[in-house]
Amino acid sequence: MRSERDRVADGIVRLCEWAAAATPGSIPRDVLARGARVLADDLSAIIGARDEPEVAAFHERVLAQPRPAEATVFRGGRRRTDRVSAAVANAVAADWLELDEGYRNVPCHAGLYVVPALLAEAEARNLPLEHMLRALVLAYEIVTRVARAWTPRAQVMQSHGRYSAVGAAAAVALARGADASRLAAAIGTAVTLTGPSPRNHLAEGILSRNVWPAAGAWSGSMAVEWAECGIAGSPGAFHDAYSTVLGGQAHPERLVADLGGHYAVLDGYTKIYACCQHLHSAVEATVALRPGLLARAALEDIAAIHVETHPLAVVLVNDRPGTTLGAKFSMNHAVAAALVTGTGGAESFTAATLAEPAIDRLRGRVKVSLRETELPPPNDRPARVVVELRDGATLESECLSAVGGPDRPLPPQVVFDKAALLAAPAYPAIRPVLETVVRLAPGRMGAGWADIVNDICRQPKENAT
User: Fold this and answer.
1) What is the sign of the dihedral through the CA atoms of 103, 439, 418 and 285?
2) How many CB atoms lie within 10 A of CB 51?
3) Can you give the pLDDT at residue 112?
4) For 123, which of 82, 297, 418, 458 is 20 to 30 Å away at the CA?
5) Rounded to an integer, what distance in angstroms lies between the CA atom of residue 169 and that of residue 184?
């Protein structure tokens, strides 16, 4: 009888063989279109974070170094550096606003782990869009299958450190046309570069959390370079890392079940709320409750706010977040800000909201408890919000599954609207370009990504006077 480690290794090899053999033409059109949407969504989130002080400072430091001009750091204009440095710089920005795409079935921001490294590699190679989308959806498939194939021992480690290097390595290797052996060699190294990524850093607002995907982008990119030099990892390393070291329970069959029958990228979610997805149902319920509340009382009349929610969210409690990251992982702040602003968008999680008296007052009145009954997916991340007024009256609202997931999908227009809000101030031409990309316009599919970036960076002609 083969050992569990051997079965994991076999699964990784088969997964790599399947991915390496896939062509753009063998991938369903709706899968490629969803991949294009992930690309557009995450690129907009990267650009939207360009003026965050820490992001801007790091980008300027990277761009000040004399390096080959291979790939763009997306902060307006077309300032370029070497592909690995560009991947790192864009990955630092990618999760800063908490508006990047995510994977719904298990905690895993697959697009975040794949896109920054792929953007840089594809631009450096001027990879045709159809081959770029092939690499994206296949790398997404690899990293999400890996995420599904282990049940963590405990929810103490965020997925960014666990999976980002694997996603980046898969994306870069596939963009380079790696065969199955080289793909397995690269991701087999990448998995050994997993970072601890302690989950308590989220609610505490420790900003080093935002660079975990960047560390993965560097590690994954380098794992491909090393594999091409004969420095190879082992397919068995996945069991060594996730089972032996991290103590997870392996499910080897999930690595290869129904390969090509259903693509994981179709199970992703699009964010309209700029906070941890585990809080989205509470935010949505709060926004829905607010008009009725204001019709009969003022915010000052709120005595308490009770939130019953799921296990992943119940630990995200912080009534005095010290950073915007802390606010994005604070149930107290997310609910209080939604009551004050009427939205869960980026404006509810700015630095100014940390000191806003009305929000601060309400944060202290939020009480979070575990929902008694767990529900099956897609309703496994619900929230019930009950607002108690000083006169004893209560108002309540419940959201079983927040908008944006595959069960409540948002139209592509939302991605374009996000691009207009987040990215168009820096790149005025980006929205129409992304619209053609997401539509898989024939004229785009054969175009090189560097040429598409040229179009994104093009400034509108000034009106003749």
Assistant:
1) negative
2) 12
3) 98
4) 418
5) 10
